[in-house]
Amino acid sequence: MILVVGGAGYIGSHMVKCLRHAGEDVLVLDNFENGHRGALLGASCVEADLRNPTSIENALAGLDVEAVFHFAAYTDVGESERNPAAYYENNVVGSWNLLEACVQTGVKAFVFSSTAAVYGEPVSLPITEDHPLMPTNTYGSTKIAVERMIQAYSRTFGFRHVCLRYFNACGADPEGELGEDHLPETHIVPRLIKHIQGKSGFKVFGDDYETPDGTCIRDYVHVSDLAEAHLLALQYMRNGAGSDAFNLGSGSGHSVREVVDSVLRVTGSRIDVSVAPRRPGDPARLVASSERAQDVLGWRPRHTALDDMVSHAWNWMKAHPDGYGD
Ligand SMILES: NC(=O)c1ccc[n+]([C@@H]2O[C@H](COP(=O)([O-])OP(=O)(O)OC[C@H]3O[C@@H](n4cnc5c(N)ncnc54)[C@H](O)[C@@H]3O)[C@@H](O)[C@H]2O)c1
């Protein structure tokens, strides 16, 4: 059985769909704080909170879990600066409790959702896995703390692990069954779509960066391609390999202005987007090298066109104006 922790969330739910499609036996563990029952699409689920070790033990009692995919975390960079305790408790202590339960129950493989935020301000581009790890915010610091904890547990207890460092997850299930429903929404594409739908404001933060159009450049990767990479990581560990960290990005960045233009093009809208001053700590460019994932895992992202990512997100949000409705 594969346990998907945080499987009711945005990326985790796409993972669950992908695993079930591949014929795997899947169980979701989620506390539904930021997840949605509607995102499970009928997958088996146990409600538990990682901050409560007894709750995890009860959830895993008697189960034969081969691998754990760990998506559960708080993910808002700004909030992590305002409330570091909540981030260390949920992301680090929660992961520690999960690792302890994995050791007790003999889990053999562990895949962790890490992030580009572990690198901080880039000193070289594109960012490879060997880039110095210098997170500039609490969210990134919690993720690198968990990566190191997983390495230590993996060395001591002999299970395999893969840390996947996503850049900007984007898009939605191409079949339209799943999408992104965060409250508050911090990601650019759903925020822009909500702006077009009159549900929230939107500002471009800074148009005076040293980039071709002056706005920040980020690396967008389709959520279904992320799920595919996890499946390959599972295969990699089943073949006896591990443990390693891999970047997951598209390798080509897009500016905020390009994303705005794509959203306007795909949705056929003509809304104005205003510009605000730069936010402190936003690097001009963050672009991944995903060569290691391509070479070692054989990962070939399929939905690399920005308009495809945006149109999948738009299709879902258009059909689900209230998200999952919970
Ligand atoms: N979305 C991105 O662009 C992005 C980029 C880099 C890394 N990541 C990482 O990917 C993972 C998934 O991100 P997402 O956007 O799907 O987030 P999400 O908030 O949509 O999903 C997280 C899920 O975990 C659950 N959860 C959180 N804390 C829990 C706890 N203590 N016990 C049980 N369940 C808990 C939530 O209810 C939710 O269902 C996170 O670890 C995030 O740090 C995301």
Helix/strand layout:
Elements: E1 2-5, H1 10-21, E2 26-30, E3 44-47, H2 53-60, E4 67-70, H3 77-82, H4 84-105, E5 109-115, H5 138-157, E6 160-166, E7 168-170, H6 188-196, E8 203-205, E9 217-218, E10 220-222, H7 223-238, E11 244-248, E12 254-255, H8 256-267, E13 274-276, E14 285-286, H9 291-297, H10 306-319
Parallel strand pairs: 1-2, 1-4, 2-3, 4-5, 5-6, 6-11, 7-10, 8-13, 9-14
Antiparallel strand pairs: 9-12
The structure holds nicotinamide-adenine-dinucleotide.
Explain this structure.
The chain has 326 residues and is α/β, with parallel strands linked by helices. Helix content is 39%, strand content 17%. The chain has 10 helices and 14 strands. The strands form 4 sheets. The protein has a 7-stranded parallel sheet with strand order 3-2-1-4-5-6-11, sandwiched between helices. Strands 12-9-14 form a 3-stranded mixed sheet. The protein has a two-stranded parallel ribbon with strand order 7-10. The chain is globular and about 55 Å long. Bound molecules: nicotinamide-adenine-dinucleotide (NAD). Nicotinamide-adenine-dinucleotide binds next to helix 1, helix 4, strand 5 and strand 7.
